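Field log, afternoon session.

UNIT: design team B
ACTIVITY: writing a sequence onto a fixed backbone
BACKBONE:
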C-alpha cells in the first residue's frame, strides 16, 4: 500500500509543497514543532532512510541543504536542525526544523 507521502507526491492528498525536483520533494509538516518545520523525502518509495542507496541518500542531503538555506532566509532562526526519526511514516524522510533553542526539537 502506498505511504501517505506517496499520496503527497502524486497529489492525491494536499500538502504545502516548498520545493520539488524530479527526484525529491519538500513540504511543511502537518503537525509542526515550530513554524517552517519541513519534511524532505525522496520520490523513491523506501521505508527507512538508511535503506536508500548511497546515491539517493546523498541526493536527499544535497536537496535538503538547498531547502534548509531557503528556509533560513524565510524563517529567522539560529540554525536549521535536521533530524531522522521515521517512527510514524514508513517512507524515508528527514525533518528540517528552524531552531533557536534545543526545546524547538522537542518531539
Ligand atoms: P516520523 O515518521 O519521522 O516519526 O514523523 C513523521 C512526520 O510526518 C510527523 O512529524 C507528522 O506530523 C508528519 N506527517 C504525518 N502525516 C502527514 C501528512 O499527511 N502530511 C504532512 N504534511 N505531514 C504528515
Amino acid at each position: 500500500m502506498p505511504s501517505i507521502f506517496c499520496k503527497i507526491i502524486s497529489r492525491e492528498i494536499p500538502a504545502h509543497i516548498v520545493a520539488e525536483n524530479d527526484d525529491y520533494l519538500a513540504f511543511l509538516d502537518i503537525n509542526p514543532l515550530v513554524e517552517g518545520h519541513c519534511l524532505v523525502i525522496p520520490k523513491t518509495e523506501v521505508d527507512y532512510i538508511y535503506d536508500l542507496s548511497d546515491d539517493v541518500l546523498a541526493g536527499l542531503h544535497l536537496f535538503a541543504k538547498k531547502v534548509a538555506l531557503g528556509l533560513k532566509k524565510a524563517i529567522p532562526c539560529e540554525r536549521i536542525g535536521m533530524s531522522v526519526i521515521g517512527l510514524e511514516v514508513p517512507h524515508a524522510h528527514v525533518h528540517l526544523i528552524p531552531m533557536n533553542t534545543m526545546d524547538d526539537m522537542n518531539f
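LOG NOTE: Strands lie at 17-20, 24-28, 38-42, 79-83, 94-99.
NEXT ACTIVITY: expression trials, pending approval
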